[in-house]
């Protein structure tokens, strides 16, 4: 019975942290401002079927990041739609 004594406080603190996080979601921008670019590169990779060269736009390759993350994202897009 002694082991259960601190659980209500722990649940309360967890709920409080969750509520604070939920209320503050819109108060700051996304940390990584390049997420849309990475998503577009992965979409192009899946659409064109070119798994070697990551393309950002027509005729504009994107070499700013290793391709493993793009391969995983493009594969997920092909699997899940």
Outline the fold blueprint:
Blueprint: H1 7-23, H2 35-48, E1 55-57, E2 60-61, H3 68-80
Helix pairs in contact: 2-3
Report what the structure shows.
Keywords: Cell membrane, Glycosyltransferase, Membrane, Transferase, Transmembrane, Transmembrane helix. This is Glycosyltransferase family 39 protein. Its main location: membrane. It is a single chain. This protein has 3 helices and 2 strands; from the N terminus they run ααββα. It has 81 residues and is mainly α. The chain has a domain at 35-80. It has a two-stranded antiparallel ribbon. A hairpin with a 2-residue loop joins strand 1 and strand 2 (60-61). The longest helix has 17 residues, at 7-23. It is elongated, with a radius of gyration of 21 Å.
Number of helices, counting only DSSP H or I runs of 4 residues or more: 3
Task: Return the string of H and E elements.
Answer: HHEEH
Strand order of the largest sheet: 1-2
- How would you sum up the global shape? elongated
Gap from first CA to last CA? 51 Å
Sequence stretches where pLDDT stays below 50 over 5 or more residues: none
> What kind of sheet is the major sheet?
2 strands, antiparallel
- What integer is the average pLDDT? 87
- Rg (C-alpha, Å): 21 Å
What would you call the structural class?
mainly alpha
Percent helix: 40-55%
| Strand residue content | 5-15%
Number of strands: 2
